[in-house]
# Entry
Amino acid sequence: MRRFLPALIAFCLSALALPALADEAVSTRSWTDAAGVRWTETTTVETTAAPRDGASRLVGIAAETAAHGVARFGPFVVLDAGRAALVDATDAASPAQFARMMRAWPGLRVLDMVDCPGTYDDTANLRLGRMIRARGLVTRVPPGGSVRSGAVDLFLAGTARHAAADADFGVHAWLDDSGRGPGDYPANAPANRAYLDYYQAMGMTPATAAAFYALTNSAPNTGVRWLHRADLARFVPVN
# Structure
C-alpha cells in the first residue's frame, strides 16, 4: 500500500495519483520555529486527470525545506544533537534511514514534523512509527507545521506529542495498488487490522483506535479532512 497526501496550495486540493504531468503551481512560505530556526518551504503541486500505477496519496511534493540541518538521512534532517526533523515523504527506505540516523546521533530526543506529506509505503511507514516509539522520541509540530496522510501516524508515535496552535493535520482513506480501499476489505482483514493494531500500540484503546481509523477513512482517498490539535486530542494526549 502506498499513500501520500499533498502539500496544499491556498487550501485548494486537487487529489490525484502519481501524475502524468499537466499543470504545476509553486508557492513559498517561511517561518521561525520555537527554537528560533528559520524555515523556508517551496511547494510544487502538479495536477493531472490521469493517474498512474494506482498510487494512492500523491498530489504535491515539498521541494525544499530545512536549510539549517547539519545532516540528512532521507526525509530526516538532523538539526542539532537533540533534534531532528521530518521534512519530506517516507518510503520503503525510511526505516533503515531512521536507524542510521539514530546510530549516528544517539542523543536525538525530539522529532519536529515540519512539512510532512505522507508516505509512499504504508507498511514501511507503520514500521517506522514503531521505531520512533521504541526510541522514545517526542514528536512536535512547530508553528506553521503541516502533517498529512501517513505522516499523521508518525506523529502519533511520539512518547509525548506537541503541536503548535496553528498546526494542521490532514487525513484521508488509503488506496492500495489494486485500487481498493478500507471498505473493500472485511473489517478484520489484515489490510485493516494493521492500522487498528498500530493505533493500539500507540496507546489507544480498541474502541478509540476504531473511532480514529473511521475518522481517517471518512474522507475518500481523493479528498482530505483537516484536523487541528484539539481534534487529535480526542484520541491521544496532545499539548
